[in-house]
Amino acid sequence: MTFEEIFKSHPAPTSLDRDTLLRCIRECLDCAASCTACADACLSEDDLRMLVRCIRLNLDCADACGATSRTVARQTAADLGVIRTTIKACAAACLACGEECERHAVHHEHCRLCAEVCRRCERACADVLALID
Amino acid sequence: MTFEEIFKSHPAPTSLDRDTLLRCIRECLDCAASCTACADACLSEDDLRMLVRCIRLNLDCADACGATSRTVARQTAADLGVIRTTIKACAAACLACGEECERHAVHHEHCRLCAEVCRRCERACADVLALID
Amino acid sequence: MTFEEIFKSHPAPTSLDRDTLLRCIRECLDCAASCTACADACLSEDDLRMLVRCIRLNLDCADACGATSRTVARQTAADLGVIRTTIKACAAACLACGEECERHAVHHEHCRLCAEVCRRCERACADVLALID
Amino acid sequence: MTFEEIFKSHPAPTSLDRDTLLRCIRECLDCAASCTACADACLSEDDLRMLVRCIRLNLDCADACGATSRTVARQTAADLGVIRTTIKACAAACLACGEECERHAVHHEHCRLCAEVCRRCERACADVLALID
Q1: Does a structural domain hold residue D9?
Q2: Could you tell me if residue C119 is inside a domain?
Q3: C-alpha closest to that of A57 among D49, B70, D102, D120
Q4: Residues sharing a CB contact under 8 Å with residue B114, sequence separation 6 or more, in sequence order
Q5: Which residue range(s) make up the domain with A109?
Q6: What is the per-residue pLDDT across C82-117, written as a single tens digit (0 to 9) for each?
Q7: Where are the alpha helices (DSSP H) in chain A?
Q8: pTM higher than 0.80 for the full model?
């Protein structure tokens, strides 16, 4: 994606490992869009009532991933305390949403896929935390 | 604001103290808008170069407050781990942004006001954390 | 709210009428939070299946109002074409969401209140459009 | 990206051309992240004062693309009036931001790349509009 090239052309790049940050941003973008699409797919399912908690956590996770993608994408004058807690919140949202989606994975392909991307995003967040904790 | 009445008319309200949650949401909304407006005001200042860190933290804080206002506003099937880490991230962003804004408070009224709302939002976050930690 | 004072302390203020812009931002913030809370309240209702369209439009409207509140809050080097189309999109989302909420107003107080704030936000958008069209 | 598979597994898919919608969502995600990263890169440039309008339009464009990616990603009970005006606002933001970035393309690689992704996103929006206008 083009944003990765833009990130790499920053005039005062971060001292943190660039590939780890980029993977985190990429997974956050995919996870945010996946959770938005999964919540919407759930809204059209016959067993909608079973999916209420899934929808709610999808929305939380989309919000957390969106905010995290932007905060990690900024390299100017970064505050590690902000980045650390933001990524922890994102990982917590991915964990909760991924576990709930997993419970519906047998019945709904979108939930199975969303559980996957949540786990991947959670790992990408953990990899950034390992750089700064 | 009308959203407060809507929050109170929820058919399955949260067991957490409603007024504490509402104050947190209200402060997050004001802080997000304040940080957006402060970043923009900074962009028009003569000493713009001195305000780069302020702008960056304004943008982080606006993102954190926006995500937090939405997550706290949801009462259906809440996950306390998600709410707790989200609010901690918000408080950290408010702290960092508030301290940076404070450094420019003498020269820029928008920074002085923004430091105030950041501190108020940080306290409102701490009050919610006291309910769930 | 503090953001209004920050908006007023901008070093290079917009030439558009400030009170009209501020009312638009305020209504957008309330409407975004109201739609987020209404979607969540709908998720907990017994007649959830009847409210699917309401939830979807609530989410669209919250997104439109959020983006619009930020774009209108920026006074530095504004582009009227961007502001005009953004506000038109916001008014369209408020109209669609308000009409759908109105259909459920008899049964759900949160929908009745949300219809009200959508209409108020739509009017506040129309008032800004009248300044720039 | 995984969100594309989730979009395709929707139980009540849109009647609009799926590939056109998916390209629009993908470009919006890339453009939103690109504009966020370009604004941040601009903040670290020596000729920061020349880039104030670029930063402002980057922020508007990121907001518009974010809201549009989510609205287009929802297939349940879509309202064409909302989608149409949202995409028009996004195209207008991409146009304004892309033109401004282009002016700095010779001096800043991030602006050159951001102008490219803005143009690509604007075209993807136009392609969706051609389906529904």
Answers
A1: no
A2: yes
A3: B70
A4: B34, B35, B37, B38, B58, B97, B98, B101, C2, C6
A5: 17-132
A6: 999 999 999 999 999 999 999 999 999 999 999 999
A7: 2-8, 18-43, 52-73, 80-103, 109-132
A8: yes
CA B38 to CA B126: how far, in whole Å? 23
Q: For residue B8, give the chain C residue with the closest CA.
A: C110
Across the interface, whether the CB atoms of A48 and C44 are under 8 A apart is answered no
Residue B12 falls in which region: left (phi positive, over 0), alpha (psi -120 to 50) or beta: beta
Q: In a mutagenesis test of the A interface, which of D40, D58, D97, D120 is the best target, namely the one with the most A β-carbons within 10 Å?
A: D40
In a domain, A121, yes or no: yes
Structure token pair of residue C66: 């959020």
Query: Identity (one letter) of the amino acid at D111?
Result: C
State yes or no: pLDDT of B95 exceeds 90.
yes
pLDDT tier at D121 (50, 70, 90 boundaries)?
very high
Helix A52-73 vs helix A109-132: angle between axes, to the nearest 10 degrees?
Answer: 40
Within a domain: C7: no
Domain count, chain C: 1
Q: Is the ipTM of this complex over 0.95?
A: yes
Residues of D within 8 A of B49 (CB-CB) are 48
Contacts C41 to B, Cβ<8 Å: 6, 9-11, 75-76
User: Which CATH number does the domain housing residue C124 bear?
Assistant: 1.20.1270.360
